[in-house]
Amino acid sequence: MQNIFIFSARLKHIRDSYKVASKELAFAINVTNKASVSKWEKGNNWPQIDMLLNMSKFFGVTLDWLTGNADSPLSDSLLSKLEASMIACDQSGAGVFEFYNGDSNDKHTISLPDKYALDSSRKSLYSLEERATIVFYYSLFMLSQIHAPYEDDPRKSTFKAYPYFRLKNDMLNLLGQSSKAPKPIDFEYITSQAYEYARVLESIAK
Asked: How far apart are CA 94 and CA 88, in angstroms?
């Protein structure tokens, strides 16, 4: 099977599983032509490498899996690199997420549980699926700051399925491994279903 159809199917299934609209993904990976995502998911063409890398970072999955060169979507190595870029330290040395609420001079922080902030405990206490989900929610939250603040109108949201007023709470629940936290998506199921969809795309293209 051609890798372009595997890529198309995996992109569509992970996007649908996370309930991210095509135009929202285009915004997230900095694509100006919103129709590009639809073309990619139909197997019409490949994205440029920078777009593929942006997708990999946004969803927290490996580039090899996304492009059909591997069956495992999650990698400790990739997630560790993404987490290292996400986690900062405040003046006391505690782990935080830093963000700017609509104004580059208006810096805020979100305190992180020690078990997540520390590399060793994060790797032992959080599954790869949990870590990938946190990376995804972090991406959503940071991108939402571009159009922030929305607290005065909670009906507005950069990502329709993730209202701004709930997004931060969901991310905090994920970090704290609360029972209220969103469940990680089933990557094994996505990989299986995407393969079947890729076969359909390939048969249509013949």
From this structure: 8
CB contact at 8 A, 203 and 1: no
For residue 15, give both structure tokens.
């996007």
Instruction: Kindly report the CATH class assigned to 3-73+186-205.
Output: mainly alpha
Matching residue, tokens 């078990």: 115
Percentage of the chain beyond pLDDT 70 is 91
Q: What is the CA radius of gyration of the chain?
A: 18
Q: What is the 3-state secondary structure (H, E, C) of the chain?
A: CCHHHHHHHHHHHHHHHCCCCHHHHHHHCCCCCCHHHHHHHCCCCCCCHHHHHHHHHHHCCCHHHHCCCCCCCCCHHHHHHHHHHHEEECCCCCEEEEEECCCCCCEEEEECCHHHHCHHHHHHHCCHHHHHHHHHHHHHHHHHHHHCCCCCCCCCCCCCCCCHHHHHHHHHHHHCCCCCCCCCCCHHHHHHHHHHHHHHHHHHHC
Q: Kindly report, residue by residue over 1-49, the tens digit of the pLDDT.
A: 689 999 999 999 999 999 999 999 999 999 988 889 999 999 999 999 9
In degrees, rounded to 5, the angle at the alpha carbon of residue 166 between the alpha carbons of residues 164 and 170 is: 120
Domain ranges (residues) in the chain: 3-73+186-205, 76-175
Q: Dig out the tokens for 94 from the structure.
A: 């505690």
pTM: 0.91
In terms of pLDDT, which residue wins out, 146 or 155? 146
